[in-house]
């Protein structure tokens, strides 16, 4: 059992979905109520300077692990890793943590570039740049990410299953996964190697 002790706090990002199991539990929680948690569960250990560049492609709530990595890495003055984040949403209003991401990019312009893409017609009403509207196709991904042959680069991908399949191809069952198999989807078509792409399930 893991228990937080002392002056420690945990910040959570919760997006409410209609009939969402987890988000409805938070909605029903009253002031002063409690909720149990387990963890932390480490999906991807991050080590400073393990690679030169990290490219991140995400959609919706898939930004949350990216934000965790960015916060930890960018506050370390000894870490020289650079980051490119491509973040897709339906509308500008759906972008989670936008203020926080923009603030990180302003504070670390030499280490972080953030690009947003929205796929809804509502973007026109928000005076959204035309090149940042539409599905995450090969052109948008290639513009935002380092080239696939760039040395010491890792690509992290997180979001809804449909987006992950679009970017990486359908995931094989764990026992059938072949690290030597070519990567599918948009990233595969652009020439990215499966060994350098981490898909958050």
In short:
This protein has 201 residues and is of the alpha/beta class. The protein has helices spanning 21-28, 63-74, 98-107, 122-125, 138-144, 161-168, 185-189, and strands spanning 53-59, 82-89, 112-118, 153-158, 197-199.
Give structural notes:
The protein is α/β, with parallel strands linked by helices and 201 residues long. The protein contains seven helices and five strands. The protein has helices at 21-28, 63-74, 98-107, 122-125, 138-144, 161-168, 185-189; strands at residues 53-59, 82-89, 112-118, 153-158, 197-199. Strands 3-2-1-4-5 form a five-stranded parallel sheet, with helices on both faces. Strand 2 (82-89), helix 3 (98-107) and strand 3 form a beta-alpha-beta unit. The longest helix has 12 residues, at 63-74. The protein is globular, with a radius of gyration of 18 Å. The model has no long low-confidence stretch (mean pLDDT 86).
SSE map:
Elements: H1 21-28, E1 53-59, H2 63-74, E2 82-89, H3 98-107, E3 112-118, H4 122-125, H5 138-144, E4 153-158, H6 161-168, H7 185-189, E5 197-199
Parallel strand pairs: 1-2, 1-4, 2-3, 4-5
């Amino acid at each position: 059992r893991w228990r937080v002790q002392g002056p420690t706090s945990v910040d959570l990002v919760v997006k409410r979905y209609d009939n969402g199991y987890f988000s409805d539990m938070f909605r029903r929680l009253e002031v002063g109520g409690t909720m149990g948690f387990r963890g932390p569960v480490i999906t991807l250990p991050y080590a400073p300077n393990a690679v030169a560049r990290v490219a991140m492609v995400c959609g919706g709530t898939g930004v949350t692990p990216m934000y965790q990595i960015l916060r930890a890495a960018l506050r370390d003055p000894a870490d020289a890793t650079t980051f490119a984040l491509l973040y897709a949403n339906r509308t500008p209003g759906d972008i989670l943590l936008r203020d926080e991401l923009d603030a990180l990019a302003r504070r670390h312009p030499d280490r972080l570039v953030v690009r947003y893409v929205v796929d809804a017609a509502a973007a026109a009403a928000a005076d959204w740049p035309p090149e940042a509207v539409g599905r995450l196709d090969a052109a948008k991904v290639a513009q935002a990410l380092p080239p696939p042959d760039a040395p010491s680069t890792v690509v992290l991908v997180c979001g809804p299953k449909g987006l992950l399949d679009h970017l990486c191809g359908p995931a094989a069952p764990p026992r059938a996964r072949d690290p030597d198999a070519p990567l599918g989807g948009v990233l595969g078509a652009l020439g990215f190697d499966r060994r350098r792409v981490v898909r958050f399930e």
